[in-house]
Amino acid sequence: MSEATFFLFKALMDVFTIGVVFNFLFRLLKVDYYNPFVQGIIRAVDLPSQFLRPIVKPIKNIDLSSFLIAVFIQAGAFYLAAIAGSIEYDPIKISIWSAYSVILLMLKMIWWILLGGIILSFIAGNNYHPAIILIRQMSDKFFNPFRVFLPPMGGLDFSPIFAFIALNFLQAVFVQFAIESGLPVWLSVGF
Q1: Among the four 1, 47, 72, 92, which has the fewest Cβ within 10 Å?
Q2: Number of structural domains, the chain?
Q3: What predicted TM-score, i.e. pTM, was given to this entire model?
Q4: pLDDT at site 119
Q5: What is the helix (H) or strand (E) element at residue 127, kind and residue range?
Q6: What percent of the chain stands above pLDDT 70?
Q7: Which domain holds residue 158?
């Protein structure tokens, strides 16, 4: 397999993984399923999860089947890297690297969702475009636990600060675990 072909397939697998992680986050955060963006993403990426969902049942809002599908896709991408000769084939390491890659991708996506929610609250506070509503809805779900301890004061909301601190802590922990496991950073979609 040529290097160009490998990177093409890896890019396609990474894009599909991003869609599956969005599906996971939609179910975790209980977003509005009537939003056209949510419906489009779910229609595009939920088919593999539907086959796995009867076997791997969700735990409350945590859709384990979507997470496992994302891990399988990343494992396939690492397997392609092994075929291309970029890494050596070790199924246990590839499984661990795939899980870390998906977790790091999820944390990176949450970071961008939080940032997007903050920016959109300033520049598009009264805009009702479905994408803007979705980003604000998702970011508010992450900010709400921190608003319990620190409610808005005088029109200022300090909960995003604590949300970013918690998120950066989780990112640092999982990046350290991933590096210690030997994860090739250049192959991981989450870095």
Answers
A1: 92
A2: 1
A3: 0.91
A4: 92
A5: none
A6: 99
A7: 3-187
Torsion of CA 117, 119, 120, 123, to 10 degrees: 160
Residue 168 binned pLDDT confidence (cut-offs 50, 70, 90): very high
Structural tokens at position 63: 């859709």
Render pLDDT for 70-83 as a digit per residue (tens, 0 to 9): 999 999 988 888 88
The token duo for 178 is 């991933």
Residue 146 or 150, more confident = 146
Beta-bridge partner residues of 156: 153
